[in-house]
Design a protein that fits this description.
Layout lengths: L4 E2 L11 E2 L1 H12 L4 H10 L7 E5 L5 H8 L3 E5 L4 H11 L1 H4 L8 E4 L16 E8 L7 H10 L8 E7 L8 H11 L15 H8 L3 E9 L2 E3 L2 H9 L5 H6 L2 H12 L9 E3 L2 E8 L2
Parallel strand pairs: 3-4, 3-6, 4-5, 6-7
Antiparallel strand pairs: 1-2, 7-11, 8-11, 9-10
Protein name: Class I SAM-dependent methyltransferase
GO molecular function: methyltransferase activity
Keywords: Methyltransferase, Transferase
Length: 286
């Protein structure tokens, strides 16, 4: 089984771990991404996504959320400026050449870049914008999102819903105890790339910073379930939340402590189960 991270024989603290980005993207798409399906479903149901929806997905990654919207009849555009490996998997899932779905031709676009790269004056304005990549779980993860939201807003009509997502309260997220390993190991470098507990107003702060007006929120149970401890470790490593810890120590240490942290969540049949609550905010464009 191909590991997501490959560490040199003589690791040194502060050195960037060598990452097999294609393997990591595949682990995300095959193991981890599906954990957020209840979140996507709850949002789409509340906003009545379907025929007539023109959705712009920011940080669309490997495209599962877009695929679910498209299955409801929505025309979807996904942009991702920083994860070409995940975007390649989204193309496999969504583009007509891959699916053979003639109905989808022209209704699905995937763009390696930012919102401005998705602008098309010949198409109607977007009437839904989503940013499903959870924020408020990594130090410094919200700064760049505000800029993306500001750039996306002009592509949508007045009052268009914009959906932001994040982790719920740490006491209601069993995975928090596992993710604390990343923070503990990354502390020597005081890195801005490691996990931190979500704060109550994380989503509202980002919305206000981007000039959006909050207009409702919700919480959704998103349990993380895995076939075994190895699968759980691969899935969690694919999030990138442990990269700062690997830079501060080494991948062997991260793997060891991550595996130990997962064992309390292992059930008698070998599966791993961690109940979690995620939160979403619906804001409106000016």
């Amino acid at each position: 089984m191909t590991p997501t991270l490959v560490q040199s024989h003589s690791p040194r603290a502060g050195a960037a771990p060598r990452v097999d980005l294609c393997a990591r993207a595949r682990d995300w798409a095959e193991i981890q991404e599906r954990m957020l399906v209840p979140l996507y479903e709850a949002v789409y149901e509340r906003l009545e996504v379907g025929d007539g929806t023109r959705l712009l997905g920011l940080g669309c990654g490997s495209g599962l959320a877009l695929l679910m919207a498209a299955s409801r009849g929505a025309a979807v555009t996904g942009v991702d400026p920083s994860q070409p490996e995940r975007l390649a998997l989204a193309r496999e899932r969504l583009l007509p050449e891959a699916t053979g779905d003639a109905r989808a031709r022209g209704a699905t676009r995937l763009v390696e870049g930012g919102p401005a790269d998705a602008a098309d004056p010949d198409l109607p304005a977007y009437n839904l914008i989503t940013a499903f990549q959870p924020i408020g779980c990594m130090a410094g993860d919200s700064e760049g999102l505000s800029g993306l939201l500001e750039a996306a807003a002009p592509l949508a009509g007045h009052g268009t819903p914009v959906v932001l997502a994040g982790w719920g309260p740490p006491e209601r997220c069993a995975t928090s105890s596992v993710l604390r390993v990343a923070t503990k190991l990354a502390e020597p470098l005081r890195s801005t790339g490691s996990w931190r507990p979500a704060l109550r107003d994380d989503l509202e702060v980002v919305a206000h910073r981007a000039g959006l007006k909050p207009d409702g929120s919700g919480r959704v149970a998103c349990p993380f379930g895995y076939a075994d401890v190895e699968s759980a470790a691969r899935g969690l490593l694919s999030t990138g939340l442990f990269d700062a810890a690997a830079r501060a120590t080494d991948q062997v240490q991260v793997d060891k402590e991550l595996t130990e942290a997962l064992h309390p969540h292992r059930r008698r049949d070998g599966t791993v189960w961690m109940p979690n609550v995620f939160r979403y905010l619906i804001a409106r464009t000016p």
